[in-house]
Write a structure and sequence with these properties.
GO terms for molecular function: ATP binding; non-membrane spanning protein tyrosine kinase activity. Helices cover about 35% and strands about 20% of the residues. By secondary structure, it is α+β, with helices and mostly antiparallel strands.
């Protein structure tokens, strides 16, 4: 038990990698530094000034929080944030630092106390302001929001993956005496990013993901930030990344599954994101999760709010699915996501192969800007090649379709594709059919084949997962990471002149 407490303490204070062997059955507990604050009804954990306004609903409300140090060796600083009585705007919220002297706690208005709790109780009882000029009365503790999760209600299980600034674990979230399996992203600073910068990136991702509710977008449950390490808690998708699934099942995935459950599913998720005025900026197979025939968009570490976003500082970003205009202007739009979605379609039909393997940024930029595009394998339906080349990969972003238009095109093509397979003459309806089975090549038969194929793949996946080995995941957690996978196969290129000249598929929906 002593060893477990020692490692818990080290984990909380130094944010070293969680030792799942010793902590497998333990809920993460606060260190001695944070323990006195966690149960206080007005304590809200590690928050920035800009996050406080959302939590203080009306004048007279207050909360206690810690501000991250601005330097690597700086101390954690406790603050009382108060919405002054009589204030007409949240712009008047004040932040009062609690300082220490000789082991006592005090604020600018005077008085010393053995604990922060005694300080707060004194000002509440005496109905005195904790600010020298504003009417900062501690009338009512601010309520916690649903997205503010308690660290000690999270149980760590095995590691799923690791990136430069985060480790992802499978875990358990305990809510109202019930337990829910979740994915937990454990955030940490290093020599390249301070605690303050890390918190900024975490809260940016949290605020982007909070309102998202869609079948094809990974759901955020909240963030646990009562104490370090900060942990983002998300929906657990058991199948793992789409890229990993593709690479583990080369040549085994039916075209219909790739079209309907991977490509169309991801397209619906991206369409929803764009409708929320968001740009993902990192659409790729490695950033989609796939399980039980559902594809979900994940990893919003690079996402931004608005109709466009321009890089203003030099930083590393994923470039192998970057649109030509981004290389030239550094400006992202929803149409640059459309281009990246086209690259992801290529990844899917190449069974998870990496685009432009062994190519560095200058080489990829020269190819893309000059008009060269990746070439699809022969197994790709011609209509999908045509749609990707003309509707996703057009050099001028204005010539690309929106994701809503692409979803409609995909839906129409898949409907047509299923009907054509049903009418196929490769097997006629007079062949032997098992009792209770639908005729071969009927839509029902194709659905059964697809489901059996998935069951086989899932069994293969289960056998691998039971080995409980660490899976290397590529996590572009924050906007300082470019993703370069293992070289696998050189993607062949084609110039615009070599692209198909066939007419575009009709946008009119066919009805049965």
């Amino acid at each position: 038990m002593a060893d477990e407490n020692r490692i818990l303490e080290k984990t909380i204070r130094e944010k070293v990698e969680v030792d799942t062997g010793l902590l497998e059955n333990a809920y993460v507990k606060p260190s001695d530094f944070y323990a006195p604050y966690v149960e206080l009804p007005y304590y809200h954990g590690l928050l920035r000034n800009v996050d406080v306004a959302e939590l203080l609903a009306r004048p007279g409300e207050f909360l206690l929080r810690f501000a991250m140090p601005t330097t690597p060796t700086g101390p954690m600083r406790p603050f009382l944030s108060v919405y002054p009585v009589g204030s007409k705007s949240k712009d008047e919220i004040v932040h009062i630092e609690i300082t220490t002297a000789e082991g006592k706690y005090t604020v600018e208005t005077g008085g010393t106390f053995d604990t922060v709790a005694l300080l707060v109780t004194h000002y509440q009882t005496e109905k005195k302001s904790v600010h020298p000029t504003a009417s900062a009365l501690l009338n009512k503790p601010a309520k916690r929001h649903r997205w503010q999760l308690r660290n000690y209600l999270l149980k760590m299980e095995r590691k799923l993956g690791e990136g430069t600034f985060a480790q992802v674990n499978r875990g358990i979230l305990r809510v109202r005496a019930k337990e829910r399996e979740v994915a937990i992203k454990i955030c940490r600073e290093n020599e390249k990013i301070t605690k303050e910068q890390m918190l900024n990136e975490v809260m940016k991702e949290v605020h982007i993901m909070k309102p998202l509710r869609h079948r094809h977008v990974v759901r955020l449950y909240g963030v646990a930030m009562d104490y370090e390490p900060i942990m983002i808690v998300m929906e657990l998708v058991r199948g793992g990344s789409l890229q990993r699934y593709l690479r583990k099942n080369p040549g085994k995935i039916p075209t219909l599954e790739k079209l309907e459950r991977m490509i169309l599913g991801a397209a619906c998720g991206i369409q929803y994101i764009h409708e929320k005025t968001l740009i993902h900026r990192d659409i790729a197979a490695r950033n989609c999760l796939y399980s039980k025939d559902i594809c979900k968009i994940s990893d919003f570490g690079l996402a931004c709010v608005g109709e466009s976003f321009k890089l203003k500082v030099v930083c590393k970003v994923p470039f192998k699915s970057m649109a030509p205009e981004v290389f030239c202007t550094f400006r992202y739009t929803p149409k640059s996501d459309v281009y990246a979605f086209g690259v992801m379609i290529w990844e899917i039909f190449m069974d998870g192969k990496e685009p432009y393997p062994d190519k560095r940024l200058p080489e990829v930029k020269a190819m893309v800007v000059s008009g060269a595009r990746l070439t699809f394998p022969d197994t790709t339906p011609p209509e999908i090649k045509e749609m990707t080349n003309t509707c996703c990969w057009a050099t001028n972003p204005d010539d690309r379709l929106t994701m809503a238009q692409i979803v409609r095109k995909l839906d129409e093509f898949i409907h047509k594709y299923v009907n054509e397979l049903s009418r196929s003459k490769s097997d006629n309806i007079e062949e032997d059919v098992e009792p209770g089975e639908p005729p071969r090549n009927s839509a029902a038969h194709l659905a059964n084949v697809l489901d059996r194929s998935r069951e086989t793949a899932d069994k293969t996946e289960d056998k691998t997962d039971h080995k409980d080995k660490t899976v290397d995941c590529e996590i572009s957690t924050y906007s300082t990471m470019s993703v370069v996978g293992e070289p696998s196969q050189v993607g062949s290129l084609s110039s615009p002149a070599q692209l198909s000249k066939k007419g575009k598929p009709s946008s009119k929906r066919k009805k049965n």
